[in-house]
Each structure stands twice: as C-alpha cells, then as structure tokens.
C-alpha cells in the first residue's frame, strides 16, 4: 500500500458519517457479530468474502489496513454490522471498504452506539497465468496455463477464459513471459502471414501471374490486408492475404 493510499484512507475515515456513507452494497443487510480489537479486521473481511467471491474477487488480507472513526472497546463486544459499499465501473467495489457498526448495548445512549470502520485492502482476482514463456507462433495448450490470484490492476475483464478450454492448434499471438497474465487476445489460431516473415507477393496482370518474395510488415489472416516490403527495388506494396504466406497485390506501391 502506497503512502498516498494510506493518506486517502485516513481522510476518508475522518469524513465518514452516516450522511456521507457509501450506497448500500451487495452485503447491505445487518449481521450480528462479536468483535474484539485484535480480530475485527479478519471478522469483517470474512463477512464480505462471499460477496467478493460473486464478483470473482478476494481480499488480500495480509496487506489490509483498518481504520476506526472511534476506537472499539478494549473488551470484545456485540455489534450489528452492515457492509456499506458500492460496485463501481469494471465490477470493482469502491475502496476503502466501509462498514457501519452499531453497538448492541441498551445501557448506552443511542447516538453513541454507531460508528464507521473502513478497510483499505488490495483486491485479487483469479486469472490465467503463463507457466512458461510463450514465444510468438508457438503452440499453447491448457497445460501451459495455471490459475492464480493476481492484483485486479493486472487482470481486466478480457482474460483468457477459465477453466481453460483451448482447442488444438492454438498459438501465441505475441510473446508472453512466465508469470504474465494471459489475455484472450494473447492466443488464437495462427496468423497466415506473420510480421517480419517472408511471403510470396503474387502479381497478376493481363492474364499473367508473377510471384515475388517479400517481407510482411504486419500479422494478418486470409482475407485481411497487410503491407509487403520488397528489397530490390526497395518498395512497399499493399496486399491481401490469400493463403499461407501468400498475398495478392493491391493497387500501387507506396514507394
């Protein structure tokens, strides 16, 4: 957790009042818990674990930081607890997570029973991770991927689907390092033309066809266009992919 994150946590906690509370979250019901100072963080994170799981998230409790609007009693006491947070863009809860606590103690004045607790906690998401290095063009199968919890900032919504169900013949469409999160567009059917690889440029004119060897400047599949660079003479041509490493000339050269 950065220093800026902790400063934000302190400011947010200082401002918490029932009026400033976040909108009711997925666990907006009241729950009766016995809370002590030493266990309160674990108890509150355990309370919302099922709700986070519905969002395919989990809390990194080892790096959580709790803050109290007013101190809890030194001796464990009974509270009615209501998680109070909203799910924002991208399916992520607003941080820090907020909880409203009401002391179950008829001897206390009603206005002294309520307080707010916030927990700044990194959120993790189960994501497919590369077990080995994927070189572009190499075959990738499900044994090459393992599911691990990673920080949500590394795991957006366009991940490779889990559980893994890759068909045969799927290849890496870019280099992926060991331990990197695998996204849906990192793998797929092989390109018919690969950037920086030789291709046959087919030129058709007046019923005649001439094949020339050139270098593709981008990845492409059949039906897509790419540019092809010739060395002698040094010119670049736009072409449509018509087969494996075969392209058909389109229009004029780009010089």
Q: Into which percentage range does the β-strand content fall?
A: 35-45%
Main pleated-sheet profile = 5 strands, antiparallel
Based on CA atoms alone, the radius of gyration comes out at 29 Å
Counting DSSP E segments of at least 2 residues, the number of strands comes to 15
Provide a descriptive summary of the structure in words:
It is a single chain. The protein has 255 residues and is mainly beta. It folds into 3 domains: 3-121; 125-188, Type Iii Antifreeze Protein Isoform Hplc 12 (Alpha-Beta Complex), CATH 3.90.1210.10; 198-253, SH3 type barrels (Roll). Helices cover 11% and strands 36% of the residues. The protein contains 2 helices and 15 strands. It has a 5-stranded antiparallel beta sheet, sandwiched between helices. The longest helix is centred in the N-terminal third of the chain and has 15 residues, at 40-54. The protein is rod-shaped, with a radius of gyration of 29 Å. The protein starts with a helix and ends with a strand. Residues 1-26 have low confidence and may be disordered.
């Amino acid at each position: 957790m950065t220093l800026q994150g902790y400063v934000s946590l302190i400011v947010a906690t200082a401002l918490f009042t029932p009026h400033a509370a976040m909108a009711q979250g997925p666990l907006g019901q009241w729950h009766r818990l016995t809370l002590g100072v030493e266990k309160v963080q674990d108890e509150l994170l355990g309370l919302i674990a099922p709700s986070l799981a519905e969002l395919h998230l989990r809390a990194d409790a080892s790096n959580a930081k709790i803050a109290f609007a007013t101190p809890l009693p030194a001796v464990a006491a009974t509270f009615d607890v209501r998680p109070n947070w909203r799910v924002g863009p991208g399916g992520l809860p607003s941080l820090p997570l907020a909880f409203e606590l009401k002391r179950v103690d008829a001897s206390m004045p009603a206005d002294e029973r309520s307080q707010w607790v916030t927990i700044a906690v990194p959120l993790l998401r189960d994501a497919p991770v590369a077990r080995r290095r994927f070189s572009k063009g190499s075959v990738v199968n499900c044994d090459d991927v393992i599911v691990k919890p990673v920080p949500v900032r590394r795991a957006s919504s366009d991940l490779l689907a889990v559980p893994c169900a890759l068909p045969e013949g799927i290849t890496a469409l870019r280099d992926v390092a060991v331990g990197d999160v695998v996204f849906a567009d990192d793998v797929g059917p092989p390109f018919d033309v690969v950037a920086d690889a030789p291709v046959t440029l087919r030129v058709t004119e007046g019923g005649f066809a001439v094949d020339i060897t050139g270098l593709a400047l981008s990845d492409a599949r059949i039906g897509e266009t790419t540019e092809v660079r010739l060395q002698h003479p040094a010119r670049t041509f736009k072409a449509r992919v018509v087969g494996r490493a075969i392209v058909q000339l389109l229009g004029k050269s780009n010089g």
